[in-house]
Design brief:
By secondary structure, the protein is of the alpha/beta class. It has 2 domains: 181 residues, NAD(P)-binding Rossmann-like Domain (Rossmann fold, 3-Layer(aba) Sandwich); 106 residues, Alpha-Beta Complex (UDP-galactose 4-epimerase, domain 1), CATH 3.90.25. The chain is 40% helix and 18% strand. The protein contains 11 helices and 15 strands. Strands 3-2-1-4-5-7-12 form a 7-stranded parallel beta sheet, sandwiched between helices. Strand 1, helix 1 and strand 2 form a beta-alpha-beta unit. Helix 1 packs across helix 6. The N and C termini lie far apart (47 Å).
Length: 311
């Protein structure tokens, strides 16, 4: 039984789709109901802040995935992430299930050069400090032999139907409507993006290989390119002009006065005005996996989620 804690988000949905391809039995766990029609899927309601509910939700699990996303607010993260990770650790111990935690890269902070699994933690944001603490707690539990687990990290997503990726919302959706794109930060800087279906495949692969436990894995992600190159490629695929406007830190601050989610992105702005070079070569070489190219990823999105609209 494969249990997905925090089901319903883009990465969890991609993982669910991959598990279904391989005809696995899946239990989705979330606070909000998820409608299921496939006989291989069931849904259980649970609050990850409630230890008893989490323990009940993982019963009979062999692999547990933690794909939770919580409100993008540092104060809420400070309150809730330590509770969530403690509850999940207790739960997987109770059933001796393997745990795979889908993480981000905030704990690394500003890195000059490629970001690998060996990159030390030097967070330069409150959210990064919280993520570093959670990851350290998990690694300590692994080192002590208390749990079998691994940490899987991805870069910024693209290809999410929920429109919670700035690339999807501010570039691909805009070009699909023949509108000008918006780019956060400096489009001359390098950045790379994890294609959501690759994230799902990567999580599935880790779930099949117990030898991957007790390690950190960067999920398969195409090499970094500049924002200008990404927008030119997207515009070419959508057959539009690569028009765009830049959103700087001051603009984010101003919008953040009215939108709390945007306010939460201000402290992460360093990721967009410096080079961001996420390195997934460890995963690619170990599992012989080639990440989807940006050209193929954008082309697929242009034919499915964000189809070109005739204006």
């Amino acid at each position: 039984m494969y249990v997905i804690l925090g089901a319903g988000g883009p990465s969890a949905n991609a993982l669910t789709a991959e598990l279904l391809i391989h005809q696995k039995n899946i239990r989705l766990v979330s606070r909000k109901p998820i409608s299921v029609s496939n006989p291989n899927i069931s849904w259980v309601q649970a609050d990850l802040l409630n230890e008893a509910q989490v323990c009940e939700a993982v019963k009979d699990a062999t692999v547990v995935y933690l794909c939770a996303g919580i409100i993008y607010d540092a104060k809420i993260w400070q309150q809730q992430w330590p509770m969530i990770i403690n509850n999940v650790i207790t739960a997987v111990k109770s059933v001796d299930a393997r745990l795979i935690f889908l993480d981000n890269i905030y704990m690394y902070g500003l890195v000059n050069g490629p970001i690998t699994e060996q990159t030390p933690y030097h967070p330069c944001s409150v959210k990064g400090e919280i993520r570093a603490s959670v990851a350290t707690k998990l690694m300590d539990e692994m080192a002590a032999g208390n749990i079998r687990a691994s940490i899987a990290r991805a870069a910024d997503f693209y290809g999410a139907s929920s429109m919670n990726s700035f690339i999807d919302m501010m570039v691909l959706d805009k070009y699909s409507k023949n509108q000008s794109a918006q780019w956060v930060g400096n489009p001359k800087k390098l950045h790379n993006f994890s294609y959501i279906p690759d994230v799902g495949k990567g999580l599935y692969i880790l779930g099949q290989d117990p030898k991957s436990d007790h390690q950190i894995w960067h999920l398969p992600t195409a090499k970094p390119i500049t924002g200008n190159e990404f927008m030119q490629l997207a515009a070419q695929i959508y057959q539009v002009e690569p028009k765009h406007t830049n959103i700087n830190k001051l603009m984010l601050r101003l919008v953040g006065l009215f939108k709390k989610v945007v306010a939460g992105t201000v402290e992460m702005y360093y990721q967009y005005d410096h080079d961001y070079q996420f390195d997934s070569s460890k995963f690619e070489q170990y599992f012989n996996f080639e990440p989807t190219s940006y050209a193929d990823g954008i082309k697929n999105i242009s034919e499915t989620m964000y189809k070109k609209q005739n204006n």
